[in-house]
Amino acid sequence: MMRFVITAAAVIIGSSVCLYILHQRLSSRVQHRSHYGTLGRPSSKPREIESIPESTFTDQYYGLYDHVSKTVPRSLLPQSESPESLVTKLVRRNMTTFTRLPQALMLRVVSSTPEERRSFQASQIATLDFQEGDLVCDVYRVKVRRQNKVEFEIAMKTMDFVQGRLAISAHEQNGAVVFNSETMMWRRADETRTMPLEMPVVRWMHQAAAWWLVDSGVRYLMELAS
Predict the structure, then answer these.
(1) Sheet of 149-154, strand order
(2) CB 225 within 8 A of CB 219
(3) pLDDT tens across 142-181, in order?
(4) How many separate domains does the chain show?
(5) What is the pTM of this model?
């Protein structure tokens, strides 16, 4: 029994150290910023997320916003691909990869309907163009689709007091392409229950996953050009 405890502790400590190192390395490979607090300040508005009602941006609501981006020269990406195609390929790859992360495994446990279960299948995600209404990993439903952006509504059945959005986008800038991933969660300021991203460990895990998906997803697109 003692040997098991020592082994388990060593695994947990070793995994934590590896995740910390990964987090530190990723922080130097992507650009990132975050904001949390009441939503009455102009700085609380996200850059690309457009489906949040304007009435939300008051001191009556409390939110957490996380933004990560990576810039790559356009010449290093597939030249025959349009911005819309690049975004579609990036979202397909990243959401498929997300299905193998611990966060998605926890979401899968509470999925119940055939549509919800199919939304975790890589073969299903690979066919999506991410049109409005498409569902991915049970909680991500496409709310807005633009040529260069997919914006998901985040709806968690067990936390109906929380609202959220995830937007993945790309735009060309000075001969380069900037890829963005933005996440926002909010609740009423007088709500006493805690949102997932208010928990330090969950927020840290979210950052590590979001940063890694953007970094590795862009490298995936670059490999398509080689």
Answers:
(1) 31-38, 61-73, 176-188, 163-173, 149-154, 140-146, 135-136
(2) no
(3) 999 999 999 999 998 888 899 999 999 999 999 999 999 9
(4) 1
(5) 0.86
